Amino acid sequence: MGWTDERVATLKKLWLEGLSASQIAKQLGGVTRNAVIGKVHRLGLSGRATPSQPTRSTFKAPRAPRPVSSHPAPRRIEAHAPPVPRPVIYDEAPGSATVLTLGAHMCKWPIGDPSSDSFTFCGRVSDKDGPYCVQHAAVAYQPQQSRKKTSANELARSLRRYI
Ligand SMILES: [Zn+2]
Which runs of E-coded beta strand occur in 54-129? Predict the structure, then answer.
């Protein structure tokens, strides 16, 4: 395909609008980017302010901002907090010990609602250093455990009169 007057006019128009040589080549069709550049030079149009970096870019969308990590702060708090055992109310089978039968070396893991008659303690043999059995100690000291803070605090308060 040659350079008809019409195509040259289009080339001039697009070039002055700020399109890059490759964009113009695409619009015209049938010519390469190099052919466009050569024609631009021959027409004496190359004096455009920034021919290699068109001010108008139809291709690049603005970059999306980087996604902000949603949980660095809680992690830091967790790291500084001492590992305090916080019992969690679980739906689990009633324990073998009650307030009356709970002994020194029995797991003091509370099971159920402390204000109800069905409230029990785990009652299994407790770990040598802690108030809980191995399984419940693992739960109590687990840092990632999602806890219901208020219910854990309420529980601790209500247990103070027993332990
Ligand atoms: Zn236990």
Answer: 110-111, 120-121
Give Rg (Cα) of the chain.
38
Question: Do 93 and 124 form a contact (C-beta atoms < 8 A)?
Answer: no
98 class by beta-carbon count within 10 Å (0-12 exposed, 13-18 middle, 19+ buried): middle
Task: Determine the distance separating the centroid of ligand 1 and the alpha carbon of 39, expressed in angstroms.
Answer: 86
Distance CA 157, CA 137 (A): 19
Q: What is the pLDDT of residues 84-105, one digit of tens each?
A: 666 555 567 888 899 889 988 9
Q: Give the ranges where 43-72 is alpha helix by DSSP (H).
A: none
Beta bridge partners of 125: 106
Q: Is the pTM of this model over 0.70?
A: no
What distance in Å separates the CA atoms of residue 151 and residue 163, rounded to the nearest whole number?
A: 18
The CA 93 to ligand 1 mean position distance, Å, reads 11
Q: Give the integer Cα–Cα distance in Å for 72 and 79.
A: 11
